[in-house]
Give the backbone structure.
Amino acid sequence: MIDRCGRTIDYLRISVTDRCNLRCIYCMPENGVKLVERSQILREEEIIRISRVMAQLGITRIKLTGGEPLVHVRMPELVCQIKEIPGIKKVTLTTNGTLLKEQMKELAEAGLDAVNISLDTLNRDCFQKITRRDLLNEALEGIQEALRYPGISVKINCVPLGIEGQDLCEIAELARKYPVHVRFIEMMPIGCGMEFKGMSEEELTELLEKRFGSLTLYQGEPLGNGPSRYYEAQGFEGKLGFISAVSHKFCKDCNRIRLTSQGYLKTCLQYSAGKDLREIIRNGGTDEELTEAILEALEQKPDGHQFLEKAQADDTEKLCMSQIGG
């Protein structure tokens, strides 16, 4: 698939649910968000059908997200079915890790290629403050379980918040001790995220180099689907990465589109524009009609976000990240 800017789109992120067992302060309000009726969430067969059409159009990599995708009752089966679709080369998962220990074996057997685990601190009190839940031990057990499968790439995603007790160097230490890549993801000004300033990539680099010495830009084979810039540090088993979508804009190289849990195809995280694929399916639409809608959406994919400028107010996304899909 080629969008109107000439970018090749080969990566699809699918949110399988808007439910989550955490209540992260930058993702949703303390009391959560209003959940949609389960009947409005894409069914398993609908996800598979859309994935097949996407694969025929050129999507080769699919990331399964949420909410928290592991609250979905048939994640291993879903992974297995997507892996069997001709043209799909990789199926990966983003999770908070708290439910991973019990499901990792089945996910590995299903053919999962990689898992990204969101972890913002190793301090229990700070973890509880950020997630509003006391589940740090479960998250750490999930990471350890994932590391038992060396054929599956493991990455840790950390969102710097600039709050007391987060200790970002301690998170970075995981890449020194274990064969995992730790990525620091810049705060996105969406939903509750607009309330936090976070930390810049430059501030983070200075902090990490004070602790671990010089960071050297990694120039080897790509380590994932996205735009993360990876660095090597002496004595580290894994790499340190930065995803700074706002301050270091990489829209010109964007290769992704998103499907929300309700079947809405989004071509840019910032904007609400897109196509309702669920409506097409449930109104008896054909695969040809799905294809047409997907290609029409690509023709409207923006040049890039305008988080640092004032975007068009009537088209700016107003949903939280848990509702869009992480």
Observations:
- The chain has a mean pLDDT of 89.
- The two ends are 23 Å apart (CA to CA).
- Residues 13 and 63 are 5 Å apart (CA to CA).
- The first strand starts at residue 11 and ends at 15.
